[in-house]
Design brief:
This protein is mainly beta. It contains 2 helices and 8 strands, in the order βββαββββαβ.
Length: about 120
């Protein structure tokens, strides 16, 4: 048997852009991705603290140090620039692995999206 557990979490970052005319995804500053071990193309879940929306997409690497959090494509309709979101990725593992696993969680400055 396997369980799905929280692997990575970027807690409370501000949406900097929303690009409706794009083929889906979320663009995330590469510094933030590195800090929580999220990879380009990885499946993530997003929660918008401002409007309660919950949705999922995949990650595109954004410019390092830019603070970029950009929702693309259909996901752009679920947020407003300036909204505060939580970005989470999960991993599948055995219950034995999960007992000792520690997720990587960061709390960036919501004004700048920097660590």
């Amino acid at each position: 048997m396997f369980v799905e557990v929280l692997k990575s979490k970027i807690h409370c970052v501000r949406v900097t852009d929303a690009e409706l005319n794009y083929i889906g995804s979320i663009t995330i500053d590469e510094d933030l991705m590195d800090a929580v071990d999220i990879l380009p193309g990885e499946h993530v879940y997003i929660v918008d603290n401002n409007n309660g929306e919950r949705f999922e997409t995949y990650v595109i690497k954004g410019e390092r140090g830019s603070g970029c959090i950009c929702l693309n494509g259909a996901a752009a309709r679920k947020v407003q620039v300036g909204d505060v979101v939580i970005i989470m990725a999960y991993a599948t593992m055995t219950p034995e692995e999960a007992k000792d696993f520690k997720p990587k969680i960061i709390f960036p400055d919501t004004a700048t999206n920097h660590l």
